[in-house]
Inverse folding.
């Protein structure tokens, strides 16, 4: 059996794709349909993001407000809280996950997901090779006679 990729979180052979997650997920390559790549932003959104920002601001403001009596100190404290909230929102936007999705047994399945683009590209390339190796020659080219 030919192995196209054997890494810490995935195994791609000529017949199977194994995502070593918890629990491990195994897919037969011949039964995959419409394999596609997607990029998702993950993290907090909506109400969760608002609560996280409010929590960060409160953790900075409450102790400082009680300890500082000067107006300049309190204004500096407000500035620090605004910077922290800005960093939280920027961090949320930069977290990306790359996913391989496909139709499997008449359902939409996530075959593989990782935030590491290099590893994602290696796994994707291995899956492409595995699919191409299993595709009959008459379906590969789809050439028609003139």
């Amino acid at each position: 059996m030919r192995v196209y990729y054997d890494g810490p979180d995935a195994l791609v052979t000529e017949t199977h794709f194994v995502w070593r997650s918890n629990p491990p997920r195994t897919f037969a390559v011949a039964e995959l349909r419409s394999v596609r790549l997607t990029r998702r932003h993950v993290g907090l959104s909506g109400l969760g993001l608002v609560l996280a920002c409010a929590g960060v601001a409160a953790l900075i403001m409450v102790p400082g407000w009680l300890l500082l009596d000067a107006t300049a100190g309190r204004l500096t404290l407000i500035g620090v809280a605004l910077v922290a909230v800005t960093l939280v929102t920027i961090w949320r936007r930069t977290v990306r996950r790359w996913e391989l999705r496909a139709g499997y047994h008449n359902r939409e399945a996530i075959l593989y997901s990782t935030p590491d683009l290099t590893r994602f590209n290696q796994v994707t390339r291995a899956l492409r090779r595995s699919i191409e190796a299993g595709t009959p020659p008459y379906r590969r080219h789809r050439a028609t006679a003139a």
Q: What stands out?
A: The chain is about 45% helix and 30% strand.
